[in-house]
Amino acid sequence: MKIKIENIKKTYGERTVLDIEELSVEEGSLLGVIGPNGAGKSTLLNIIAGIERQTEGKLYYGENRSETIPYREITMVFQSPYLLHTTAEKNIAYPLKLRGWQDAAINKRVEELTEELGLVRLRKQKAWTLSSGEMQKVALARALSFRPKLLLLDEPTANIDPATTGELERMMTKINEREGTTIIIITHNLSQAKRICQNTALLHNGKLVEEGPASVLLKQPKDPITQAFINGELLI
Amino acid sequence: MQEIARGLQEAIKMLLSFDPEIYEIVGLSLRVSLSSVIISTCLGVPIGVLLGLYDFPGKRALIRTIYTLMSLPPVIAGLVVFLFIMRKGPLGFMGLSFTPTAMIVAQVCLVTPIITGLTYNIVKDKADRVRRLALTLGAGRRESVKLLIYELRVGILAAIVTGFGRAISEVGAVMLVGGNIVGKTRVMTTYIAQLQRMGNYDRAIAVGLVLLLIAFTINAILYNIQEKNA
After folding, report:
1. SS3 state of residue B111
2. What is the pLDDT of residues A173-188, one digit of tens each?
3. Cβ distance B142 to B67 under 8 Å?
4. Domains in chain B and their CATH numbers?
5. Cβ–Cβ of A94/B137 closer than 8 Å?
6. Residue B136 and residue A99: Cβ atoms within 8 Å?
7. Which pTM value belongs to this model?
């Protein structure tokens, strides 16, 4: 799903937390959003997901530039996932039940996803007994269950060990390539951005500083702020 | 130690001998406690949910009041209810003095703030995360509310269990408004207090053990429901 942002602003009282003139995310692309804490990255994703509303500006979804948020085609995975107080498989099945899928089709889809994410032995396990890596895998499986057109990921691997991070990254790229799902991922891990993202956007103080192919932006940034961020310098 | 051992023997004897006095006391204790918990649940859960979901002027003061009432001393609740229902009180015409109904009213005053406060805390803690999740999974407004209720069920049941614990173990308020009248308002806790004053420790321990057994059984049933729902 294509996303087009025009003059979006989000303010809390006097404080502006997001102010982006223009940003386009092409259908089927995988965009990495980087930037220091408080840059407005999560606010941007929350606005795209429809969790928060922008104070000003327009946000268009799809080729026909609809302003209506297509809630049934978008999903989001958070840094600390919230799993329903039930088993792993019922968590994965929940969005499908919402969409009125038949039990047989739900079972088949849950089976596919649990196999792909190595969750087969955890299907019947209660969500609160899972490790943080397993929880994040279940959250990703749940998000992917209904084949969303836009997948938003807010630091999904921040609290996860390297092996599980690798598994999740492989799943993200596979879904992006195989199903053409547009993915926007917030990450603090620049190596991760280099590994999986086609494009990268740097936010600082709510503004879009620089955007471009990950291979270029992360190696030869044009903007001094991007350079400083990549070099690990403190941004003011 | 001897008294405890004798009390245990007495408790077994009491239950096996089907002592009608004891069964009447146990029955009234359960009737009063369960009635007050059901009424408090009907009042406390919706109020707690509304407080957790919506903001309005004076909400903070109201929540502080509820928290204060959660630790309301039973004798104060009993005294206030007594002053209202005594013959010369504003509700004296209802003739509730020294009746099980008065005992239920007093316990509702004690249990409702507990269930309200605990429900509010659960909703406050979970509602926003559940709402965000529901939205990102494509749930509509009705489905979001259904999901919230589903997610709160275990916490609400825990609040009810806590409320029941308060009701069944309460003595001060029911003593004041009920008066511990034989065959009319005598419940296990007031009977234990009376037996202790009379120096009948064996029987006091025996009734205490029966009370514990009943509390344990009811809590076990409620926790079993909670586990099945998890």
Report:
1. helix
2. 999 999 999 999 999 8
3. no
4. 20-187 (1.10.3720.10)
5. yes
6. no
7. 0.76
